[in-house]
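Appendix B. Chain record.
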Amino acid sequence: MKKFRAFTCSALLLSALLAVTPSVVQARGIVSGRAFDSYRLPNTTVPTHYTLRLDTDIHREIFDYTGNVQIRINVLEATDQIVLHSSRSEITHVQLRNGVGLNVPVKNFEFDEDKEFLVVNVGTTLQPNTGTYTLEIDFTNSIARNDQAGFYRSSYDDENGVRRYLGLTQFESVDARTSFPCYDEPGIKTTYDILIVCGIDYHARSNAPLRGIQLLEGGKKLSTFATTPRMQTYLVAWLVSDFKYEREVLTDPQLAIASWSKPSSVHLLSYSVDASKRFMRAMEEYFDQLYSMSKIDNVAIKDEDYAAGAMENWGLVTYKESAISYGPEDGEQRQVGVVTIVGHEFTHQFFGNLLAPKWWSYLWLNEGFARLYQYYLGAISHPELQLRERFVTGPFQTALRADNSLTVRPMTYYTETRPSISRLFDSIAYDKSACVLRMMNYALGERTFQKGLRYYLQQNKERGVVEESNLFDSLEQAAKEDAVLPISLSIHEIFGSWSHQPGVPLVKVRRDGNEYLFTQERYIANTPPEEPFENSWWIPISFSTPSNNAFEKLPAFWMPPNVSEVAYTIETVQDEVVSFNPHSTGYYRVEYEESMLRELIERINKDHTGFEPATRARLIDDTLNIAQSRGSNYDVVLQLLNYLQRETDYVPWAVAYENLRHMQSMLRTNEAVSQLLERFIEKIASPLLERYGVDHRTGESASVGELRTIAIDLACSGSQSCNDDAQSAVRSLASKKHYTMEDNALLCHGLQLSNAEQRKALQAQFSQALSDKNLDNPSAKHFLLQSLSCLGEDMTKVQSFAKYLLALSESDRTKALHRLLVELNVPLAEIVQSLQSELSQRRSNSVYYKHGPKLIFEIARYVTDPADVQLLSSVASSYDSWVASEIEQQVNANLNWVEQNVEPLKNALTRYFDA
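Structure tokens predicted for this chain:
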């Protein structure tokens, strides 16, 4: 049933004041105007400008605030209601004025609590084309909330141990309405004048540059900001704090880039300022588009207080502090992290901010571009970090795994409610969309794709609101100008086949002499449905041979949808082999007929350097996953993986590592087969450990450090010297101030070799270090938090499983769960019970409760025991039914994997070691 809160006043008072002050709160239905059968605003009125003033007392540890918002609106349809969004705010006064400042009578206002509407009932019918009206609303609210959304509080302890508070915003997707009344939809863009009152020793920052400061009575001041560009509500942002900054002012054109943090961490911000400068200028040049304002701020927020991770607010970007902090001893891996996160949020300044999605259906137009160009523009701004190759080991792998289920959604997907909008922020919006955009980049050629994106920005920035057809139009224009597509094809047809259909294609290829024959179907990681899929795509087929690499990234031809088989001739010299999709430029898997696959594997075992690293990675990933989807061909898989004994490149090893970890997780309760797999893994990884050792070397690339970490993870138990180094890492933990990625792997392995007394001592060290107020390096603290899970069940003496896991980023949480459940054999039931206990103590609006489903889904990937299934389902029951449905799907996939893979894998491993 719909819930409404209605506020009314007498006709006498109304006529006297022509404004509304609430005095009564009661539940009732709307009695006038239209019925709201949608979560979308009726849009009979639209805002043309906001003037927002906030009065805060955070400096005095008073967390209530007052606000006044004046919204200029235009009437689009005759109406006696003004409908906008509001939640959490207590409305104290509402007034409506016409274009010449005269009051317009307001009957009352009321709330639709389900849809989070504020409905202002007007005493007359407002007509379109009658000029501008101003809706003025006074309200009160509080930043003392525990969901890390809207306008909320954070804190830090200064060098004297004094707690200092600050207020910040996190509005995406639909939380601007929880901080001030507004038209809170992504396709509604307008300008803002923002004014903020705070303590004299504090300062306010917002989207636009500071225009002036006025001193007020009571030790306070008013900061007034310049008018913003036209933007949507979820990008509105402000910060009230006593933070300090590092800044650099660029010229030609002028741009002030600053990074802000608590005072004791300012020295860790220089790299983020330099990364921002380099990325911004590379982005402006690449897209031939200048950034829209004269300043951009990065703000570092305490990790525990920032569940969002990072947010692209126009001109005021926020991050977890560990994400943009960098010290001189942190190494290249931290540089990769800073550049890619800054690059992601800065790319949004064009894709998402300058061009806003018409509705959340097109979220991928924001996140897909940001995910792609954090790597591809990062490779231009920071070529030393080799970021392009990391796309294949990161987003590409993540997308393939996320997109292989029966119920996955397509990229363009319509939904309306708050929970379902939140669910759109998934790997499909980020990773798959980036992969499809990257595929089009290679399919059209990068120069044509770049030209199309420049058209896309130029042709749509004035309107500022886009849907996918706008992108397709611009790419089509560039493609036709450069004649890079067959005349019969259109971008709308090609790209639409990817954005409107779920799933990833499987291209099957067989050979008849020099003729290669192709078919396509939808790839599913487990048993496909009884009724065959009807999905079909326009697929750019690329290939490479030792004597012909002309089409290793460009398409040799487009494979059309809904065609039973396509033939293509490839001339080869004697003994040449052909590899398809060799650089993973196409978003599809390749299944070779048996004879072709065996020939490729034979060649790669003879001389793997005859294939590019990306080609080797693609062959590993496709072969392994296709084998697991059918529970067959493991002798061939092991023969392929056997070559890794000679592999020294990061890309193939990173892809193999991910796949091997998945197999480990599926076998975690089967000791016999797990031991066989571990024996095999140790054999193929030991040469890598021998080559790189365990010691980090100053100046090494991030890829070398990650290769060493993989080697330690996979092969340390078989090396006495590595075991000794691991135990040494445990003993030296307390004395270290800086940590490398190798330290974490060694520490975790060393703890498995430690006795109970050593583990107890280390537990105390962790507890002391994490509570040490002198430990002010976010990277060091992040390392300790990552490593806490190495204690296994003993970590609960420091922090509960649930509280620990819920506080981690998604990537860190994935690693921690694998460590706990697979490497350390923590009973899954203990983690689930911890989650159940934690959530039972949390209100439904807490950040822990909001992120509970994500952790439940992560845990579900490890469930193969019926008792665990029942326990997990009981935790999910406190959420909507879709949570339980997703868990059921994942568990069924796990059970299918076990049923069809355990015996074939066991038999193949046995034959391998008997040979």
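Further analysis of this model is presented in Appendix C.
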